Amino acid sequence: MKNIYLEMRWKINFLGVVAIAFLSILFFRVLYIQLFKGLDYKKFLKKQIIKTEEMRSLRGSIYDRNGEILAFSLFRFSYFCFPKKIKNINEVRDFVTRKLKVSTADFDAKLKKNSNFFWIIRHDDTEVKKQDFPKGIGVISEEKRVYPSGNFASHVLGFTGVDNRGLSGVEYEFDLRLSGATLKIKNKIDARGRNFSSDKIFQIEENKSQNIYLTIDKNIQIIAEKHLEGMMRKSRSEKATVIIQDIKTGDILAMANRPDFNGNIEAKNLKNSAITDIYEPGSTVKILIAGAALDAELYSDIKDEVYCEKGKFKVYDHIIEDHDKKFENLSIQDILIYSSNIGMSKIGNKMGKNLLYKYLQRFGFGNYTGIELPGEAKGLLKKPLYWYDISSYIVAFGQGFGITPLQLVIAFSAIANNGLMMEPHIISKFEIDNKIKRVDKRKVRQILKPAICQDLIEAMKLVVIKGTAPDAQLYGYETAGKTGTAQKFDAKTKTYSKTKYIASFIGLFPADVPRFTILVVADSPQGVYWGGNVCGPVYRNIARDLAYYFRIPQNKL
Question: What is the C-alpha to C-alpha distance for residues 220 and 226, in angstroms, rounded to an integer?
């Protein structure tokens, strides 16, 4: 009996020790969880009972400077197929053709290629009741970007991809600002995933959707595109550009290129030639170089004369010629009026490589303008160390370096603004939560003395009256401008083409008190290729429409 008693007691003591040990372990485990792992388990539990769904709000809209809408977003329906879930293929085919208006052939072709998933149609207006869906077919609501005016200002606006992310233009440059906010909807669920609370928790994770207002004026853009289109048809150019800038503020009022694209349906011709194309400016740059020579005090007056070699001038192994008239002596003003290459080459040589380079940089060539658009080119401007012996002669009449159309516009706007260069802008303001943030107008630098700029404008007026641009003259208004006809340089043959030219005209309107700089560029026009003949009339027509739009009174009989 004693042995049994001892054995029973030992077992009871052992179980007691085990129980105490187990309770101690449990106590310390609970203590550890409470002190060190409580937050982790709390988060885990929350994840188990709260289901999170994400919805994105619509992408911000883009407006012109006056509030005219140019791009906006709306929700559309995208239908998809899970082939493995299809129960009745005939029922599915009937649904696709009858409800979604998709051909059986197109559907079967996708079905053959995809075993797990494929889109039947995306961003469609058709809404189908869920009870009408056969097995294997589903739908989601997706955002679609809409450009109500089709091709209008396409290179400025850009476009978005299927995922609604910006791929070019303002859409790309300001994708983060335009992208919609993420809205998270949280529901309480049970172990089977069913909602057990009618309460929904709405949480804005990131609110960054903004509306953008451009400096573009829709009416001025329409004017630019209308006349650009007419020039393309008449000249049969490979491509063309028009830029209109507000001289005082630097705002771009119109920027148009051909060919263009429709962001609603296609993604081609995306290159914005106004800021990406690099070309030799030809005679348009003569105004700037003459101004630089006067500013550097190499000549005392715009009436100072230069010997022009009677129309033919040999420099090293090259012959520089004037096109029509053969001049002996010309004033700097007349060199600009009659666009004398020989006169300008003499001015360029007198300036020398280093001084030319300094002023070309001051005019903004060889550097970014800062325009709020993607893909801008700096142009091509080598340091003087890499110039050829003949470079100072030919740079003066627009060869041997490359610029973008926008760079030329900004430089001429500075001349019209008494030599003060303004930073160009395509963005006017941002709208954030009904609050407006305007883009500051910034002065860049003084490029020439004001008095010299006035002399240059007077010379540009005479270019239109008796020089190379009579076709740019607008009845009733003073007009100032400069023509350009530059041979295209072939990088492969390293020679200038004798059949392809860049024709251009840049003008200030109205010339008595300039408000707008207007540039017209035609790449490889067929037949007549002179800048004054091809682009001068386009400038005149644009100026006429601007005068009507802004009710600018006539100042000349």
Answer: 10
pLDDT digits (tens, 9 = 90+) for 488-525: 887 777 788 888 999 999 999 999 999 999 999 999 99
Q: Which residue has the tokens 């006017």?
A: 428
* Single-letter code of the amino acid located at 81: C
Which of left, alpha, beta for 364 (phi over 0: left; psi -120 to 50: alpha)? left
Q: How many CB atoms lie within 10 A of CB 36?
A: 9
pTM for this predicted structure: 0.82
Do both 64 and 39 map to the same domain?
no
State the amino acid at position 215 in one-letter form: T
What is the spatial distance between Cα 335 and Cα 305, in angstroms, rounded to a whole number? 9
CATH assignment at residue 544 = 3.40.710.10
Cα separation values, 124 from 72, 93, 120, 128, 142, Å: 16, 18, 10, 11, 9
Q: What is the pLDDT of residue 200?
A: 41
* Total domains present in the chain: 3
Q: What is the pLDDT of residues 16-31, one digit of tens each?
A: 666 676 666 766 666 6
Distance between CA atoms of residues 444 and 22, nearest Å? 80
Which residue from 272, 169, 325, 342 is spatially nearest to 521, judged by alpha carbons?
A: 272
- The burial class, CB within 10 Å (0-12 / 13-18 / 19+), for 313 is buried
Instruction: Yes or no: say if 288 and 363 are a contact pair by the CB < 8 Å rule.
Output: yes
User: In the numeric block, which tokens belong to residue 281?
Assistant: 């400016």
